[in-house]
Specification:
The complex is a heterodimer. Chain A is mainly alpha-helical. Chain A is about 35% helix and about 5% strand. Chain A is built from 4 helices and 2 strands; from the N terminus they run βααααβ. The longest helix of chain A is centred in the middle third of the chain and has 20 residues. Chain B is α+β, with helices and mostly antiparallel strands. Chain B has 2 domains: about 110 residues; about 130 residues, no CATH class. In chain B, the strands form 2 sheets. In chain B, strands 1, 3, 4, 5 and 6 form a 5-stranded antiparallel sheet that branches. Chain B has a 4-stranded antiparallel sheet with strand order 8-9-7-10. In chain B, a hairpin with a 2-residue loop joins strand 3 and strand 4. The two termini of chain B are about 30 Å apart. At the A-B interface, strand 1, helix 1, helix 2 and strand 2 of A face strand 1, strand 2, helix 1, strand 5 and strand 6 of B. Strand 1 of chain A pairs parallel with strand 10 of chain B.
């Protein structure tokens, strides 16, 4: 459970940014816009869920690993799930196979401007 | 240089931009306003001849400016990459024809802000669940166990397919639970398409400013409740990317 600090998404991952600003928001009519966008650094495909052969094989592989872990432990231990949590993220296999997505996820926004004052705010109305 | 206007979003006309606020591109232009009637566009100059935008830094600049703006004033965020030929085009081709629609959308967003709740299944736990619930999965697991991948490819494909389908079904259920838990605190809720194979829920929420703390607490409680199988994250406050009117 992570709750981002109030006052800005300063530490959200790049994948979150991509999901948001490449997928959501208003779009200018095609005729009116100038085309100069190249998403040069982004493996945008990485954010799309695809039911691919790779996904299936990866799940199957994870299942077979899961089995080995379960066998190493006595059956009575099966209820004790807690100590194992978190380890799976470090399995080289998973890291390799989901590399791009995980890298994007791990990419941190630089918080350099987090402390600065609001850049866009309401003007004081002198006439009020 | 061939200058064009990069558009970040639409705000009410009565806002100001802090001098020296820099936008996307290299070198970055200063962010300014193009005003028309009751609305204004947040823009900065970009050089069309300098090649494509889209560096990570540009994406971050775009989102940071909009999210910071949303914390202060209502804003209609644009998707990354909106570039028009110049301030004149922004006024004449964007603001003028859509003035009333944008103005009323901004009114509706006054005092409201977006959050996004993301749930991701803990892989080990979700696989255990599926094994326990699905006999075919258990049987296939036996079949591939200790055997070469090339020889058991069919079984692996089928097992993977079962896992994928089971997760889809669980995602639907868990998304429902997230929405049921949080919708009462929100003005509006919008589901996002999953972007990861282990996504458990991906939901955008529009909340009143004064309910933000309630929402954070509710998400925290939800996260505690499901923590064995789902990692819950709350992103925000964000510009209302998911609650802008359709183009």
């Amino acid at each position: 459970m992570t709750v981002q600090p109030a006052g800005g998404p300063a530490s959200s991952g790049l994948a979150d940014v991509i999901d948001t600003i490449l997928d959501k928001g208003l779009v200018i009519d095609a005729y009116a816009r100038v085309s100069l966008i190249g998403i040069e650094v982004l493996a945008v495909e990485a954010r799309v869920v695809v039911s691919s052969v790779d996904t299936y094989l990866r799940f199957a592989e994870a299942m077979s690993h899961l089995e080995e872990e379960m066998e190493e432990r006595a059956p009575a231990e099966q209820v004790e799930r807690e100590p194992l949590r978190g380890e799976i993220e470090r399995e080289p296999q998973e890291r390799e196979l989901t590399g791009t997505a995980e890298e994007l996820q791990a990419e941190e926004l630089r918080p350099e401007q987090a402390e600065e004052r609001a850049r866009v705010r309401r003007r004081r109305r002198e006439e009020d | 240089m061939a200058a064009a206007s990069y558009v970040y979003g639409i705000v009410p006309a009565d806002v100001e931009v802090a001098p020296g606020t820099l936008g996307v591109g290299e070198p970055p232009g200063e962010v300014s306003l193009v005003t028309f009637g009751k609305i204004a566009a947040l823009v900065s100059e970009v050089d069309v001849e300098r090649g494509p935008l889209g560096r990570m830094e540009d994406l971050r600049t775009h989102q940071r400016l909009l999210d910071e703006t949303a914390a202060e004033v209502p804003v209609l965020p644009f998707r990354f990459g909106a570039v028009m030929t110049g301030p004149g085009a922004v006024a004449d081709e964007l603001l003028a024809p859509h003035h009333d629609e944008f103005a009323s959308a901004l009114d509706k967003l006054e005092g409201r802000i977006e959050y996004v709740v993301k749930g991701r299944y803990v892989e080990r736990e979700i696989l255990r669940e599926i094994l326990a619930e699905n006999e075919e999965a258990a049987r296939l697991r036996e079949a591939i166990r200790g055997r070469d991948e090339a020889v058991t490819r069919n079984e692996r494909m089928r097992l993977g397919e079962i896992v994928e389908q089971a997760i889809s079904a669980k995602r639907e259920e868990d998304t429902r639970e997230v929405i049921d838990a949080l919708a009462p605190l929100c003005v509006a809720v919008s589901e996002r398409e999953p972007t990861h194979e282990r996504d458990a829920a991906y939901v955008a929420l529009l909340v009143e400013d004064e309910r933000q703390d309630d929402l954070r607490r509710a998400v925290e409680e939800l996260g505690e409740r499901v923590r064995d199988r789902i990692e819950v994250r709350l992103l925000g406050p964000l510009a209302p990317y998911d609650f802008t009117p359709p183009e």
